[in-house]
Amino acid sequence: MALLTPEDLENLSMQLEENDEIARRVTGLDIRGICEALYGTKPGSEKVGIIPITAGNGVIGNFTSSLLFIAQYFGFEGFITEHPDVTGYYEAVSQGADIIMMADDHIFTAHNLRNEKIVSNHVATGVIYADIASRFREASSKDILVIGLGRVGYAGACHLVNKGFNVYACDPNKEFLQKAVDELNIKPYCSDDRKKFSMVFEATPNADTISEGMIEERCLVSTPGIPCGLPPEVGKKYRVDLVMEPLVIGVASMLYSVIQNQ
Ligand code: PYL
Ligand code: MG
């Protein structure tokens, strides 16, 4: 999995504002509204204990401070522990954290100690970006393209199948594709199919995975990016809206998914 860099996390609040405005325009809901609609939950100032983790490549600059900003923005009470790792975990629980958030190089998790709900960033990110794509108000049909069937893409594809969309998907890894066909009954898509989509959810670690043969003249692309799958020239040539930012939307989805339903 590609690791975030401190540079990815600069000016998060500006990226959030921009994506909130785009989401509102193309779906009718801002990120808060999408989270509430997706999970049926509303934050009630739950206390989020954020623990720096030194495993693997170690602490990433701006990461825990970004989580604190995101938790507070969406109405949670947050704090970053003074110590990392096990000492930090003990500190967070001792200080009354309701929800624990921490990440090593493989899993970034939110765990609600009160209701035992637990989620990974992969699943929460796949579900919300797929959901955003599926809410495109100018969609021409219920056909939706999923590019990438790894842990993020598969979770998003599963969510879209459950919502009743006609899910087409592609992944260079034939095993990933076959697993999704067998388990989710998605339709395999290859670019020479000539079929075009007005809704695209992209979840790959590569750039420029979206070609102009895949998209209709008016299209919504929703992706956690890093890097962006939409080539700039394609985005300019067609009327494409892009919802993409590196961390906030996925973390909001994590937090809303582990709090109590109203
Ligand atoms: C959650 C991000 C989204 C994309 N890649 C994931 C990533 O970079 N994971 C690693 C996070 C490591 C955090 C580090 C710290 O600062 O506590 N252990
Ligand atoms: Mg990507």
TrEMBL record:
Ranges in coiled-coil conformation: none
InterPro entries referenced in this protein's UniProt entry, alphabetically: NAD(P)-bd_dom_sf, PylD_N, Pyrrolys_PylD
Domain Pyrrolysine biosynthesis protein PylD N-terminal: 9-119
Top-level taxonomic group: Archaea
Protein name, as recorded: 3-methylornithyl-N6-L-lysine dehydrogenase PylD
Species annotation: Methanolobus mangrovi
